[in-house]
Amino acid sequence: MAEQAFDAERLTGALTRETVKKNVAAIHISGKLTLLQRKLSNVLLLNAYDTLTSARSHTIDARTLAMMVGYNSNDVDSLRASLRALAETVAEWDMLDEQGHQEWGVSALLSYAKLKNGVCEYAYSPALAQKLHDPKIYALINVKIQRNFTSGHGLALYENCYRFVRTGSTGWWSLDIFRKLMGVDGSAYYESFKHLNAKIIKPAVAEVNKSSDIIIEPQTRKKGRAVSEIRFLIKENPQMAMFQIDDSDGLRNLPVYKALRGQGVSDRLARQWITEHGQDYVQEKLDYVSGQGEVKSRVGYLRAAINGDYSVAQEGRATPSKPDPETEARLAAEREARAAEKAAEDAAFAARAAERRDRARHLDIVETLVSRRNPTQRDADKRLFLSRLDSDLDREHFRQHGWRSALNAGAIIAFWQELEPDAFDDPADAAEA
Fold first, then answer.
1. What percent of the chain has pLDDT over 70?
2. The whole model's pTM is what?
């Protein structure tokens, strides 16, 4: 199926946030969905989330829906089939309520869906809408990341693992539960762990590690001689740092953000101003500055206008407004706090940048050292380094990325510093000596 190009300029409202909160119950019930159906359910939920419990139905432009899911917008038959499948799929949840009482329920994933005049209208049952909207237990599923997946099992595993990224492990699941999460329960073929591992676990793990912002490692536990439980250890994927930027409020898609960037304001400062002051306030200051004609530093003037709350006087002449002493003191305190926060943030950013540069320089040295070794030595170096790695996850990442494995950068540098300590001398230190 041909992929539709992703045009963020078309997105409005909730769709600009990029991430959707998925309740644990919702994640656990959608195992039998195909890849397209699972992506579709995430985008529909993202679109509806803000009015999930207050609106009886929700709408989304069909072309926008196709763009976000990543399929050909002219393929109406596939969209119809996927919507039909969501309406026919029974969702089941089994969880504890706030009082600790067990609650079980079933509902269709969609109570209805229709396509008319290029618009998709759909609805959730009230009971399921409450579960989907529950903010207490959720995962943030990045709808841009989900476009990278090419298998439903890979995306299902990602969803079920991502909500545990902060704890570092999914905890132990029985194989029966795991089969249900992957949508292969009831299949005699996958009753065999050998088949389950070969056809579901290994390919899904490989896709999660390749396509997403996390890296996972499966571990199993046996009862007797048979595997009975499985869990996944979870780390953030340093090679997918682009997905770590938290833009869940869609700041980069706001017109005021784009206007700030057009004035030369940095990405970080633009987001900081919008977050601290609100888009209406910042837009007001942009309008004020634009009416001042030519200025030496537009960014500097804009900063002063934002911090000093410059405004247009009633007589139509642009002048800074005069705050009362109490307000002036508050603004001064806020400016000092922001300045201190910015200084700390800049220092932390500079430290991280220096660390990244240092690591990059060391890895460049490693690459040079490796290039000087003959093939036999290179194989021996790799075997020796692999023998020192304790984690299967670390070893697999090294096999995939070699001496440029970001996950193992610290260990790689330490390994080669042990072999060739003189090669890592700082040039500045050597010059001073």
1. 73
2. 0.43
